Amino acid sequence: MTIAQQPLGSTLIYTFSITICIQALIEAGRYGLAATQRKHQGDAAPAHRAWPGWAWMMPWLAFSVAVGYVCGHAIGDRLNGVHRTPFAVFHDASTWMSNFGPSFALAIGCTYFFYARGRLAVLEVRTQTALRSAAETQLKLLVSQLEPHMLFNTLANLRVLIGQDPQRAQAMLDHLNGFLRATLDASRSDTHALSAEFARIRDYLALMQVRMGPRLRGTLDLPGDLGALPVPPLLLQPLVENAIKHGLEPSIAGGDIDVSARREGQTLVLRVRDTGVGLAHAPADGARFGIQQIRERLAALYGDAAHLELTSPDDGRGGALATVRVPIA
């Protein structure tokens, strides 16, 4: 009696037995051949290391289908209580070929599915690596833009303060030292504690207050339980500089700048709020220092889970509000 003549239950037993045996042999050969290639080729082995190539896999597929078919058929016989010699399935050539062809086609289809899935996984890893590399490059570019801008302004003020107010000049040097040290540390790491980011902002605001005097009033609000959370370096610095450069400096009266951190579920919400001239008085070309770099870095590091939003507050104080949302790991 052939498989096609068996009752449905017996047919399913044969089908599953043959399929499992064939696929087990294919997978064992795939990993075994790939391991052999890695051993002999070393660093020259392909990036998708669990795939030895079709030149090796096609002969192994034929072997796996033939041996798996015999073994699966023997297991099906045992489960169905049929007694015959292991190679009796080859006595009827037409039946054997009609079953072997579909089995071989199914094996190729399954193998190609796992091959394609493996290649997609490799491409995803390469894409993530490229995005992280781009984010690191943008961070270095951002640092290179921030440091000269800060140094030129600060040194110009120091030159004046040394003669007029040595104590204020010394305090300014202390803040500059802390600011530059934090900048150097930030350029050497992918993340740092949120408390370190706020410490950098504190030094920056102190430097700017020496220059702007009472026209700049800054407030930092960091809850103690959020200080250890990891964030990308230089995440808030460009936002604070934007708030001062485009919001407070153009205003004769200056204004307030508030930097805060809050937790909303599994999301860290960072806000930079100023009471300056507002978004309506942004530069004509819409260029804002570091905003685009921050958006691109957030996209590279967190995908759609993080974003930066600029809005005009409706509390009557004017100015602008920058809100950054990042997932908490």
Automatic annotation (TrEMBL):
<keyword id="KW-0472">Membrane</keyword>
<dbReference type="GO" id="GO:0016020">
    <property type="term" value="C:membrane"/>
</dbReference>
<dbReference type="InterPro" id="IPR010559">
    <property type="entry name" value="Sig_transdc_His_kin_internal"/>
</dbReference>
<dbReference type="InterPro" id="IPR003594">
    <property type="entry name" value="HATPase_dom"/>
</dbReference>
<keyword id="KW-0808">Transferase</keyword>
<keyword id="KW-0418">Kinase</keyword>
<feature type="transmembrane region" description="Helical">
    <location>
        <begin position="12"/>
        <end position="33"/>
    </location>
</feature>
<keyword id="KW-0812">Transmembrane</keyword>
<feature type="transmembrane region" description="Helical">
    <location>
        <begin position="96"/>
        <end position="116"/>
    </location>
</feature>
<dbReference type="InterPro" id="IPR036890">
    <property type="entry name" value="HATPase_C_sf"/>
</dbReference>
<feature type="domain" description="Signal transduction histidine kinase internal region">
    <location>
        <begin position="138"/>
        <end position="216"/>
    </location>
</feature>
<dbReference type="Pfam" id="PF06580">
    <property type="entry name" value="His_kinase"/>
</dbReference>
<dbReference type="InterPro" id="IPR050640">
    <property type="entry name" value="Bact_2-comp_sensor_kinase"/>
</dbReference>
<dbReference type="GO" id="GO:0000155">
    <property type="term" value="F:phosphorelay sensor kinase activity"/>
</dbReference>
<feature type="transmembrane region" description="Helical">
    <location>
        <begin position="54"/>
        <end position="76"/>
    </location>
</feature>
<keyword id="KW-1133">Transmembrane helix</keyword>
<feature type="domain" description="Histidine kinase/HSP90-like ATPase">
    <location>
        <begin position="235"/>
        <end position="327"/>
    </location>
</feature>
<dbReference type="Pfam" id="PF02518">
    <property type="entry name" value="HATPase_c"/>
</dbReference>
<protein>
    <submittedName>
        <fullName>Sensor histidine kinase</fullName>
    </submittedName>
</protein>
